[in-house]
Specification:
652 residues; alpha+beta; 14 strands
Amino acid sequence: MRNDQPQAWKLYEDGRRYNNSLVPNQYSLVETNTEFFIGNQWLNLPNTSAMRGLPKPTFNIIKRVASLFIASLTSSGVSVRFEPLAYYDGTGLVEHRQQLLEGADPRHRGPRMDAAAFANAEVANLLEKFKFDYRVRQALFDGAQTGDYCAHFWFDPDAQPYGGAFGQHRGEIKMELVDGINVMFGNPNDRDAQNQPYILLVGRDTVENLRWEAQRFRENHKAPGGTETEGADPFDLFHPDQENDLFPGVGGKTELGCDDDHGKALYVIMYTKVTREENVTGPDGKTGEKRMVTTVYATKATRSGVIYENVDTGLSLYPIAWGNWEHQKNQYHGRSLVTGLIPNQIFINTMFATAMRHMQLMAFPKTVYNADLISQWSNEVGQAIAVHGLQPGQGIAQVAAHLQPAEMSNQIFTLIDKAMAYTKECLGATDAQMGNVRPDNTSALMVLQTNSEVPLENIRAGLYEWVEDIGAILLDMMGTYYGKRPIVVEREFEEMVMGPGGVPQLDPATGQISTRKLSRKVVQEFDFSLFKHLWLNMRVDVGATTYFSEIAMTQTLDNLRKDGTLDVIAYLERIPDKLIPKKQELINQLKGRMAQGEQPKAPKSKGGFAQGGALDDDKLLAALPSPTQARFHDLNPWAKRGVQRVMRSKVR
């Protein structure tokens, strides 16, 4: 039977045997971690009367600690930035190559083009479409539970960029997250995805979609005579199966019971790298010498048939970014945060459960009575209890009494508290990080918060490496699939500053028309195939957005404003938006007043002296060039006062 199966399926069975051979079993480990994380922490108990009567409390410290760590790791915005390897790679060389491809004379160059700027703009557009910040959180939750997180990219040839607003260009890059247990490396002892002989992605899809995909591929790859490629009918090849027992979580094992068309089947996507010798086309469009070129080939198959096979994607990199929560030696699977917490979590739950069971059984007093004198005892309020044969002088205490409950040792709860505290301490989850302290001294809290994040630095470094791999994959895919197409980029424009009545304003320092730079989004056409001939350096930029970093930033801006370093406009432009409602509207109003010659009010110190106010008029005039000073002295008094107001507003 194995000889009749596609090669991709045989490799999938090899990968499944490898996961089963790990100690502990990788499938069981992922299943246990997933259930413990969501709170199902009382699974597979022995079916005994004692276990059935035992309370089953869940104090899920696993989820709280994991959520805290992930929130801390994602509190800083992450972006990918490209820079040219050398100055000419970013400007002249790109434009030179593009003009050579278009047959233009290289001696007559047009405006220079920055390839890194186009790469940055398109990657920013893609990450926005991917909802990348949310995807990063999802990936880290996967890593915290299973130890691995993986991003898979593919090119959708039918999608329309920008909804077709800029022409009939087709094709967009898509992204999805794949469970780490459903990714299999050809060399499982090496965690570097790009060094693998092959990579398998396992998934499930409806049989209807699989049949349609196979039929479409055959129609697009017809034989030279115009007939479709040979092979069995897709309707006969693909049928629903029940091979979902290895997918994590209850949801992965539960599907709709549908008919043959809408049922699901397991599929495998296999990526391999093939190296061959071919003629290389240079940037001038001429064929150069032969050299070895490596490209990625793709195959998709099920147990019973092939959907497509050995399709040359043209990519140089596997479209898979792989990351681990914590690296493990000599295997590509990582170690999750949950794995190390499960024994502690079980101890805390069971100790609480036994204490609660003790309280249920022993917390209330028990009544002991003489059955010869009292036929039946009742605890009903106000109910009379009959006593028969009470002897003279016999007290009621000799007929019935209450047994006081046994006291439970306080060491139990002390041990539970210490177990929870030591668990958090060993993980680095401090009170400052978990928000259990009052933010009275923000400076001290910032130091504590920074120190508490030290245990996460290795995990954060792995995350940034994963994001860099994503940037390299996106650049490779853009150079392979995009071709020449429009792209939305930001460009700076220099415009005149208009005063009242639409009259351009003059700069009192130079006597020339005042200008300002504005940034606007524009549409430009760019040939992305040039990325195949370029090497761009890449880095991950991180911006702090935590609560205490905003406090520190605001305090710094306040100090700069008080000592006169910042004027009111510069201060408002830099302060966080949420601190001042309608901030941009306020900035526009202040700029309008300044254009009309009004001065913004300077802040006052406690002693009543202005802080950051205008400099002395004589000092301002002395700082101007000599010709400008001469022209100033020739003005009439009214014009001099107007110029002085403008100069004061400029330095505020």
